[in-house]
Amino acid sequence: MSQIVILGSGFAALSAIRELRRQGSNAEITVISPCDELHYVPSSIWIPAGVRKAENLRLPLRRFFERHNVKFIKAAVTGLSAAEKRIDTDAGPVTADQILIATGGRFIRKLPGIENAIIPCEGIAAAEAMSAKLAGLDGGTIAIGMATNPNEPGAMRGGPMFEYLFILDTLLRRQGRRDRFKLVFFSPSDRPGARLGEKAVDGLLVEMKRRGIETRLGHMMVRIDPDRVVTEGGEITADLILFQPGMTGPAWLAQSDLPLSPGGMVRADAGCRVEGTDAIWVAGDAGSYPGPDWMPKQAHQADLQAKAAAANIAAVLQGRSPDATFVAELICIMDSLDKGMLVFRRGKLNIVLPALRPLHWVKRMFERHYLRAFR
């Protein structure tokens, strides 16, 4: 029986499992990950407002693995040999006929003092820490910002930072204490969120002004102190700092023979096959793919890549040509706790809808629909 090993247990990994079985593959599938839970981080934006609790967003995967006949190995990847089709882990080496890398990326932590900021998308625990810190403040300044990978500008995840910005503004107004807080948004870019499209950027900047949110844009960051953000254009004194740095590939790639992009991610083709290999694939944030410069690092895009990779793996094992490709597609609803702004991009099409109350509920309904398969 053919052996497929999937590295990771997030969105891309789980979508690949479902697609492999849908394609009729009866191969033995093994998942290697330190965690046998799905952490639905997109909804962690609602933790500060009490709309979601951490336990709502951590879903055990045991039953999902059982339903899809998947073997789980609790281990962390430490390296990979494409030539030998071998994965090195802290629990020992594992070999396979086909390997899918779906471990996700990591945030760059090179900025001096970055430990003084909370990086929201690092996980549910980060959202809990931010919520606890906010609850302990009677007033002050909240600084929220983002940056990218200078060697691969598309390697970033900025949407959640806009969501936190608007959600915190709405939450503080509901609590009757918005007048005691100053919200400041900062970014090295003059036009933050450009991957969403120019119309979306205009809308975001107008919304910030309407809500009384200050902006500090276009200045490179120098460091983050416990009580301030220091940029080349000045300092922002802050009581709470949320910062989303750019992304790169997982650290274990340094112990592999895989081809890497300038930003440190695995280079792949349009079918998600790792360049120069015949049995190694990548889906999600760990990869660098051909496509438009606005191609997002988000769960939806990871799902599309995972489905293409899984279809190609199934084709190879069934003696067919692996000709599936993924569509570059950005779709997100940027939530503000009571409304949502829809942004969609595919090809030359770029749709931006203004903040509407029904879109907030659409986002919540999508969460319920998406997680149904794993509950």
UniProtKB/TrEMBL annotation:
Domain FAD/NAD(P)-binding, which positions?
Answer: 3-302
InterPro entries from the UniProt entry: FAD/NAD-bd_sf (IPR036188), FAD/NAD-binding_dom (IPR023753), SQRD (IPR052541)
| Gene3D superfamilies registered for this protein in UniProt | 3.50.50.100
Which PANTHER family does the protein's record reference? FAD-DEPENDENT PYRIDINE NUCLEOTIDE-DISULPHIDE OXIDOREDUCTASE, PTHR43755
- Protein name as catalogued: FAD-dependent oxidoreductase
Q: Which organism is it from?
A: Sedimentimonas flavescens
**Organism phylogeny:** Bacteria, Pseudomonadati, Pseudomonadota, Alphaproteobacteria, Rhodobacterales
